[in-house]
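User:
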Amino acid sequence: MVFVWLSGTCLYLVRATACAGFDPPEKRGDDVYDDVIESGAWRICGECEQQVPRLASHCRTCGICYFMRDHHCVWLDICICHVNDRWFMGGLFFGLIALCYGFHLSLTTVCHPRLLNIYFMDVLVPEACPDAFIDFQSSLTTSGACYALLLGILVALALSSSCVFVAGVKLREYKQRRLLPGQPGFSVSSGFKNCLNFWWR
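Assistant: Predicted structure:
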């Protein structure tokens, strides 16, 4: 229940900290406007035709641009960008722990458990499940464990994808950096630095 509460709190903060998109600066003059665009730090979005940073991307669902946008989460109906991506990963992480623990607890309750000694710790693991569907309560518990496993696999895939983007470069950011000369490639040291910058920025 603690991990479910932590996951729900993080996912609530994803929506609570979401911004309304990038607010472009006012156009004070043609010369200044052209210099900012030509510097490479800013560009004109082809969808909303606004002045946005180079690392901003347009969300067709929201209809606006977000700075360092990762994707639009259909489950939360919000864009994941630089203001709420850490809360999103925290929600996935705690949710994955809760699903794995619920799956393990359900199976060890219904199935015949086996006691293993792993690194001086006693761990119960399910060994045989002949009575998994013997009555309604056991069937409901087993079905819930299977659904928790399937949902845990999806959450693990989403979390691993986000971890790869954090250690490396987001896909949109990579496409834009690839077009610019002199940009460094990916290395272990740069991946470690990207992780530190992600969590402690």
